[in-house]
What does this fold into?
Amino acid sequence: MPDFTSSARHPRLPLRQRGQALVFGIAVLLGAAAATFYVFNTGQLTAEKTKLVNTADAVAYSAGVMHARALNFDAYTNRALIANEATIAQMVSISSWLQYSKGHVQGVPPLYCYSQYSVPVGLATLTYVPLCYALSYPAGYTVVNYADTAFNGAGGGVGGGAIVVAAAETAKAELKLMQATMFAGFLFARTALVQEVADANYRNDGSVSVTPLPLKDDWTSFQGGGTFISRHTGNQRQRMRDLIVNVVNQDAFVRNRSWSSSSPWPCNPVVPAGTADRSGGTVLNGYNSWEARDQAHFEIRKKRFRGLSLRCVQTGYYSLGNGHRKTTSTPGSAWYYSGVPDFYELSNAALNYTPTGSSRPDPRLQFAIRVTRAMNQTRTSAGTSAVKPGGRLHMFDGAAAGGVLAAVATSEVYFDHEQINGTTELGSLFNPYWQVHLVGNSTAVVAAATALQGVATP
It folds into this structure.
């Protein structure tokens, strides 16, 4: 029987070759551990970065929404200011018209309108005849007199018209204060908002920081100049004045209260011709006063010789009332008017903005923000994770440049209002059509963010 225990069949290895497999195994284990930490940190960093990018988008978009709401707020309040101006113009117009109407009622009797043989009938001023008859009745005088007393006051007192104007002035002052307050506190509110949005995205998951100084802020520095919007005062109110006049003049009663009614035949030497002439309207004098005038008269003319020529001359004249109302600039007095209001509108740089080669020459407000998260706050092996590398595995802990993760996002506010006729309206603070969306980061924004991260720009 062969001796299987013999050392001849199982020769011993030399001592210098023993334990080599253990070294290889340790190397494999070290590589596996490094790969595990690498995969773990890569996954965690990817999740952290995705969340940080989403947070930056939320912060930038929230700031953009705030910008759009501020611009639309100014647009709504500007329209309210214009509505108050229209109210004042209406009150001034009605006051003057009632004064005229009262005088017209008093001036009708000499025309004998209560008779079928009245002057207007005899001269065939047919358009004026129905009005003349209506004003001849005592009830007409009573109604007009009562309305004038209630609206304009009796014996120099304050009537309903002056009270409405005072209420409109109070509303104007409050609207102007609201605009000024919004503008003054906007930056403080925006700073608090962006941090609040960032914190909400990381509630119960550590802390996150919003870089105090935005990478781009057109609200405070549009096109490298002044603010995106500004307060317009003094002669800068022309834009507001033009719009007020345009809106007020949509009402024909305010714009022009004139008419005339004449005999169907021309002035001649045989039959006299008559004309009932009524003129009136309301205007805004400069920036400081509304003024309304109304007057009417009935004139009879006939051709007569003057010297050697035959001329059309006046042979009869009847005053049919006069009315006049003008606001005053004296505070506290009846019919006080503070003038065309100061208001907030796009700055001159924004109003005159015309990008080269653009099919839409409208200004846009961009805001770029940087959001950071310290590495010790992340769920990686170098942060809050319970998995910690040791020894040489520290080289695989996923350290970030500057010790923080950072994300950058840009929002853009733009004006979008297509009118019924297909034309596109340019941006202003008179229509509330400002909207917001996210846009890509510009080269300048990326370069600024890179510099803040402490990484050299390639």
In short: The two ends are 80 Å apart (CA to CA).
